[in-house]
Amino acid sequence: MIHQLQRGPGRGRSFVKRIYVPRILGLGFGAFPVGSVLYELNYTTPVWLLMLFCALIWPHIAYIVGLRAKYPYNAEFRNLLFDAAIVGFWIAMMGFNLVPSLLLLSANGLNNISAGGVKFYLKGWGATLIGMCLAFLIIEPFIYLDSSQLSIMICIPLVLIYPLLVGFVTFRLSIKLMEERQHALVLSKTDALSQLNNRGHWESLVLKKFDAGKATNEKPALLMIDIDHFKRINDTHGHLAGDKVLICFAQAMKNFFHGTNAELGRYGGEEFGVLLPDTDPMSAKQVAEAFCRYLAKQELSICTELDIKLTVSIGIALLTPNMQDFSQWIDIADQALYKAKDNGRNQVCLAKQDNRHFIATAVSS
Ligand SMILES: Nc1nc2c(ncn2[C@@H]2O[C@H](COP(=O)(O)OP(=O)(O)OP(=O)(O)O)[C@@H](O)[C@H]2O)c(=O)[nH]1
């Protein structure tokens, strides 16, 4: 799936850019040992020009071709295979001179396996063999294994620099992947509209608190908050205006609970949840009523450009020892919320200790 996405039209430009500098340096530094052997073998000017083309011009052509391609990702893999063919070509032209040939093969193999894994590494070998065959169209195959002191010395920069470079590029890539993973993790926990915790993540926080509360005898509280007559806003001003109201409402929640340890979530539609840490019934009720008053004072019209006065109904349930699981806790807070709705809305309703009786209180301004 990831490969399909990466290989789509226009995808993979960053891959092309990532390979650009390593290719310039790899082929650039690789030209020195190759050049030293070509010099020993007395090659003519056209061969030297071809070598300089591969070392100095090809990396830029590959970059432009990769960036302009409709499928940059695929184009870059073709470029990498072309690199492998270049390596094979010059190895054959050097008569398989041992040290430079091994170095070119190892640098190219490192490149290919880090870019495309084992399968691509093997494909690279195929391209290298094709490159060798192309060389044999120009010259008679020959073996010249002995590497001079000069060509061994000239290999040193590539030996030292190239693995560092590939390692550094791989390191930067892994950092980028980690950041993207982190971002995806945040997105998977966040409600896209309100930017609060989404239902799944909020419920997981409630579950954690439920387990911790059972173990420690803490008394956390759940507040289920539902905007009153929200449908009317949609019906009167349209769904988009309704969305804007939800965004502004979520922001008001964040502002009100800012600096507390409360966990806020969008439970669904126009219903929100607040998980308050260790508290007592009266304090939880006071917090809920204070939020209702805060909301009444908020100038939502500034945020929504609509003259709307929002009220909410809130159901509260504290964690009690007789609760079987966290969903029962949410359910009892929900029942308290519906009692608040039944009693005329703009109310706070607290579930009593037995979780079967509820005390609803209209919010005084
Ligand atoms: N704009 C918008 N509307 C939503 C969204 N999610 C749910 N709604 C709407 O919220 C409305 C909820 O309506 P009801 O469940 O009847 O509740 P209500 O009108 O708030 O009435 P009470 O809760 O009884 O006070 C429905 O019209 C839904 O379409 C959303 O993400 N954006």
Task: Record keyword descriptors for this entry.
365 residues; 6 strands; Alpha-Beta Plaits; binds guanosine-5'-triphosphate; alpha+beta; 2 domains
Question: Could you explain how this protein is built, in words?
Answer:
The chain is of the alpha+beta class and 365 residues long. The chain has 2 domains: 2-188, no CATH class; 199-362, Reverse transcriptase/Diguanylate cyclase domain (Alpha-Beta Plaits). 67% of the residues lie in helices and 10% in strands. A 6-stranded mixed β-sheet has the order 2-3-1-4-5-6, with helices on both faces. Helix 2 packs parallel to helix 4 (72-93), helix 2 packs antiparallel against helix 6 and helix 3 packs antiparallel against helix 4. The protein is elongated, with a radius of gyration of 34 Å. It starts with a helix and ends with a strand. 36% of the residues are buried. Mean pLDDT is 92; it is low at 1-5. Guanosine-5'-triphosphate (GTP) binds at residues 193, 226-231, 234, 239, 242-243, 246, 269-270, 341, 345. The chain crosses the membrane at residues 20-41, 47-68, 80-105, 125-145, 152-171. Keywords: Membrane, Nucleotidyltransferase, Transferase, Transmembrane, Transmembrane helix. GO terms for molecular function: diguanylate cyclase activity. This is diguanylate cyclase.
Q: Could you tell me how far the N terminus lies from the C terminus, measured between alpha carbons in angstroms? A: 56 Å
Overall form: elongated
- How many strand elements? 6
The distinct ligands, each listed once, are: guanosine-5'-triphosphate
Helix and strand run: HHHHHHHEHHEEHHEHEE
In angstroms, what is the radius of gyration? 34 Å
Mean pLDDT: 92
**What structural class do helix, strand and pairing data support?**
alpha+beta
Order of adjacent strands in the largest pleated sheet: 2-3-1-4-5-6
Largest sheet: 6 strands, mixed
Low-confidence stretches: 1-5
Percent of residues in helical segments? 55-70%
Number of helices: 12
**What is the total domain count?**
2
* Strand content range: 5-15%
